[in-house]
Amino acid sequence: MQAVVLAAGEGRRLRPLTDSKPKVMISVANRPILHHVVSALKRAGITDMIIVVGYRKERIMSYFESGGEMGLNIQYAFQEKQLGTAHGLLQAADMLEDEFIVVPGDNIVPSKGIEDLMAKEAPSVLATTSETPSKYGVVEMTGDLVRSIVEKPPVTESHVISTGAYHLTKDIFPTIQSCIEEGEFTITGVLNRMLDGGTSMGFATTTGWVDAVYPHDLLVMNDFLMDKMVLTGAKEFSNSFVGPDAFIGKGSEIHPGCIIEGKVLMGENCEIGPNVVIKGPTTLGDNVVVSAFTQVENCLIMDDCQVGTHGSLNRSVVSAGTVTGANVVLRARYEGEPDTPFPESIPGRRSDLGPVIGSDCLILDSTTIEPGLVIGNRCRISAGTVLRSDLQNESLVV
What is 229-398's CATH number? Predict the structure, then answer.
C-alpha cells in the first residue's frame, strides 16, 4: 500500500518557529516531526510514500531525499499554493495506485493506528478522542459507520475527532475535482459530500495521537514521544550520576558533579558543565552547551544552544542557536501560584508551561522570562530584564 503525507503547509499558528522552516521540520525528540510520521508508516509496513510539499519544500526534500537511507521509496508532489488538504491530495493523484493511506505530516499518529486503519475497508477515517474537540473535525457516528464530520463546531457533546488520517481509493478524485470547482478545498468537505451522496464510510480508532497547533504544544509532543521511547546507551561518567533512562549522544561530555535523571535524550557533541542538574523528560539537540550550576527540567532545547551558568530552565522550549547568559530564568508557574489566564486574543497559551524562545536569540545575564510567553527569532534581551510580554522577531530590549 502507498501513503500520501501532507506536508505542504507552513503552520502559521506555530510562528515564529515556522518562519524559516515548515511545521513538519520542527525538531521534537531530536528528529523533525515528519521523521516521526514517516517512521510510523514504515513500522506499519508502508515503504512507498508520496510527500506533498510546498512551503520551504527544500528543507524537506534535502532531509529525506529519495528515502533510501531509511529503507523507503519517497516521491514528491508539489502544492505551490497551500489551498487546502484536498487540493494537496489532488497533486499526488497521478502517482497513486488504487488504494492508499493519507496522513498529515505534522501530527504524531501511532503505527498501530495506521495498521488498524489499513485493515478497514476504504473509505475509512482514523478517529481519536480529544478534550478540545472544537479545534478539530468532530466525527459523528451511527453504529459502525461515520455519519458526518463537523469541522470545528463551536459547541459539541462528542469528544471523538478525526486525526486527519484516511484510508481511501482513487474513486475520491472526481469528488475532489468537483468540490474544488465549487470552492471546497478540504478533505473533510469532500468526505461529507461523499457521505451526503450515500457512500458508506467506516472508521478505526486510536490512542496516542498528538497534534502541535501552537508553540507550547511542542513541549507536550516532546513529552509524549519521550514517554514512548526506550532510551538506552548511557555510559558511566566519572563523579556524576547518569540515570538508566538517559541516552547520551556520541561525542558528548559530562563534567563531574552532574545529576542526569529521568528520560533525557541528549544529542551529539554536547557539553554539560560541572554540577549541572538535568531532569527528564528533557531533550537536548546536537552541540548544546549547558554551563556549570544550571538546572534544566522538562525542556526541549534544540541544536547549537548555549545555556549560561547558574541558570534555571523549567518546562520551556528553546529553539536552535539561542544563547543565554548567567543566572537566566525561564520559568513555569510555581506550584500553588495563581494562574493568570491569557487573553482570548492569544490562543493556545499555557501559563503552566515556561516560555517558548525563538531561534538565534541572545538573552543576557540575570534575565527572567515569565511563564507562557513566546519570544520571536533573533531577539536581544539586555541584562537584568524581567520580561512579562511577548516579543516579535528581532526585538531589542534594553
Answer: 2.160.10.10
